[in-house]
Amino acid sequence: MVRVFIDGASGTTGLEIRERLNGRADIALLSLDEAHRRDPEARAEALNAADVVILCLPDDAAREAVALITNPRTRVIDASTAHRTAPDWVYGLPELSGSQASAIEGTRFVSNPGCYPTGFLLLVTPLIRAGIVPVHWPMSVNAVSGYSGGGKPMIADFTKGGEGTAFRAYALGLAHKHVPEMQLYAGLAHPPIFAPAVVATYRGMVVEVPLPLHALPGRPTLAQVREVLGTAYGHAPTIRFGGDDAALIRVEDDAGTDRVTLHVCGDDAAGQARLIATLDNLGKGAAGAAVQNLNIMAGLDPCAGLIL
After folding, report:
1. What are the catalytic residues?
2. Which of 38, 73, 274, 281 has the greatest number of C-beta atoms within 10 Å?
3. Mean model confidence pLDDT for the chain
4. pLDDT tens per residue, range 229-273
5. Under a CB-based contact definition with an 8 Å cutoff, are residues 241 and 230 in contact?
6. Coil, strand or helix: which one is 263?
7. pLDDT > 70: what percent of the chain?
8. Pairing of strands 260-267, 272-279
9. CA angle, corner 193, sides to 191 and 197, nearest 5?
């Protein structure tokens, strides 16, 4: 029985994690009542009583929570951005490499990936490692997410008729907090140009990376790109591949699941490709990833409680 405390359990991600863990015989959920949720002493007691803590907090609050853990036993999964590029934290994307799941299992501190970086990294990292895309290549990524990714304030804005409730482009200064982890874990020499947007659907996500194959060294084909991705993820239960003849890809395609679907679309004659990932910003992009990491850290079935 693994004792788990979700700090920030009343937030969007925390509620989704709890849904996936409720009723599991191998998990004991620790909780605080409403009166003690913001009490530092009560929080510290719960944090130190848990085998695994999952932090669903703003960055500063996540750092404070880690500081409240005074024993060497409690392990931490941080769903915030606070520790995503920290050298003493393991990045919680098990599919990132053949050794990543082992690193997650053996560490005390795991940083949950961002939702946008999950799609981006799964699309491009194998291609960079295979030499198809050079590390100095000027990468760009376009993405749209359901408005639940912005938490309760954005949910209220979109559902109550706030400004810009159909399509909202943001991070126009190109300093989005997800860019450092994209660059670091893809092994890129330069940060990618990241163009995110929020659309009027509750959950779901499309992450797209355009590639001019004709300009890349070796002029790779769509089939070669598919082969590299298939070799990298052919046995990953959380990843599936869209057909070569996809005519329509929707932001809701993987909503309500904890999987990712990868598509390689384009035109060989023109030497152009569109690499596209669909996932749920609340699933594999947040809560599903946290539960997957929890399972791996605890030595359980990695897919226990996941919706695949």
Report:
1. 115
2. 281
3. 94
4. 999 998 999 999 997 777 899 999 999 999 999 999 999 999 999
5. yes
6. strand
7. 98
8. antiparallel
9. 130
For residues 44 and 22, the answer to whether their CB atoms sit within 8 Å is: no
The structure's pTM equals 0.94
pLDDT band at 160 (very low <50, low <70, confident <90, very high): confident
267 by Cβ neighbours in 10 Å (0-12 / 13-18 / 19+) ranks as exposed
Structure tokens at 166: 């159909």
CB burial of residue 22 (10 Å; 0-12, 13-18, 19+) = exposed
pLDDT digits (tens, 9 = 90+) for 221-233: 999 999 999 999 9
Tell me if 241 sits within 8 A of 222, measured CB to CB: no
User: What is the distance between the alpha carbons of residues 201 and 205, in angstroms, rounded to a whole number?
Assistant: 10
Dist CA 182 CA 120 (whole Å): 7
Work out the number of other CB atoms within 10 angstroms of the CB of residue 105. 17
Q: Are 262 and 277 in contact (CB under 8 A)?
A: yes
DSSP state of 114: P
**Structure tokens, 197:** 């947007």
